[in-house]
Amino acid sequence: MAGQLYLCATPIGNLEDITYRVVRTLNEVDLIAAEDTRNTIKLLNHFEIRTKMTSYHEFNKIEKAQYLVGKMLQGEDIALVTDAGTPGISDPGEEIVRQCYEAGIHVTSLPGACAAVTALSMSGLSTRRFAFEAFLPPDKKERKHILESLINETRTIILYEAPHRLVKTLEELLDTLGERDMTLCKELTKKHERVYRMTLGEAVSYFKEEAPRGEFVLLIEGKSITEIEEDKQKQWEELSIAEHMEIYLSRGMAKKEAMKEVAKDRGISKRDVYKQLLDD
After folding, report:
1. What is the DSSP string of 77-143?
2. Which of 101, 87, 73, 99 is nearest to 32 (CA)?
3. Positions of CATH 3.30.950.10 in the chain
4. Which of 123, 202, 209, 214 is deepest in the core (most CB within 10 A)?
């Protein structure tokens, strides 16, 4: 019989946050695949776990996943751990999970710490809906595209950032999204954990004066539906009624339907649209 893959959540700071089930599983599996064995060995030593380890990271994820899938097909059970938190969430774990399913290998996840959810729960922002973006990509074009796609995001936005890039990222967010309320969580579950509640503008000013230290989770309030509608209305009002009509007519819409859409966009009546067209 084939073995299976265990996705084991590990602490994001405080070692007491590990679960009994994860400790037991790490002791019982045949092999532990770790994002960085130098980090994971500290965790294993703390809990006196002697299971063999192998590296599995961003730069070997495809070939190594194939190797590990082969091991599981031979009957071995493997645990996957990331440097901190839940594997498969914004890390190379998603590749081995995909390959396991393709090979018919059972995958199970052992829940535990996750920086994004931990920060969200204590953010004071809306928690019902959120958009998790993790680290913004380093490529300028891709980064710009993602930032612009967040302009009208109504959900709470969650980002990760390293201290040396924090100010630059905050400036980009302010330039693209405009002033927003936000929460910054630093060093979650660790001795120097801290939560900052401020606006994007205030965060830029603060961290230009106070050098950022530690890993950060950024949570930014989403745009309200009212603000989006107001922005749309302002865009329409920059056009004349005739120009606005032409947009819908050029799509093949009948004149009566086009007038209806123009009235709806601008928050006025069809009669007002008709009168304005006559006046023009």
Report:
1. -EEEE-SSB-TTSSSTHHHHHHHHHHHT-EEEEE----HHHHHHHTSSS--SSEEEEESPPSSHHHH
2. 87
3. 116-223
4. 123
pLDDT digits (tens, 9 = 90+) for 162-217: 999 999 999 999 999 999 999 999 999 999 999 999 999 999 999 999 999 999 99
Distances (CA, A) of 160 to 2, 187, 255: 37, 12, 49
Which superfamily, per CATH, for 4-113? Tetrapyrrole methylase, N-terminal domain (3.40.1010.10)
Give start-end residues of each CATH 3.40.1010.10 domain in the chain: 4-113
* CA separation for the pair 188, 193 (Å, rounded): 5
CB atoms within 10 A of CB 153: 18
pLDDT at 38: 95
Cα separation of 194 and 184, whole Å?
Answer: 8
Q: Length of the chain, please?
A: 280
Interior/surface letters 43-62, b for 16+ CB within 10 angstroms, e for the rest: bbeeeebeeebeebbeeebe
228: pLDDT strictly greater than 70: no
Q: Give the residue with greater pLDDT, 237 vs 161.
A: 161
Residue 251 in tokens: 């799509």
The answer to whether 94 touches 109, Cβ cutoff 8 Å, is no
Sole residue written with tokens 């539906």: 225
Rounded CA separation 109/118 (Å): 18
Distance between terminal CA atoms of the chain? 79
Q: Fold for domain 116-223?
A: 3.30.950
Identify the pLDDT of residue 254: 87
Q: How far, in Å, CA of 57 to CA of 111, rounded?
A: 21
Q: For residue 43, what are the CA distances in angstroms to 24, 39, 269? A: 13, 7, 67
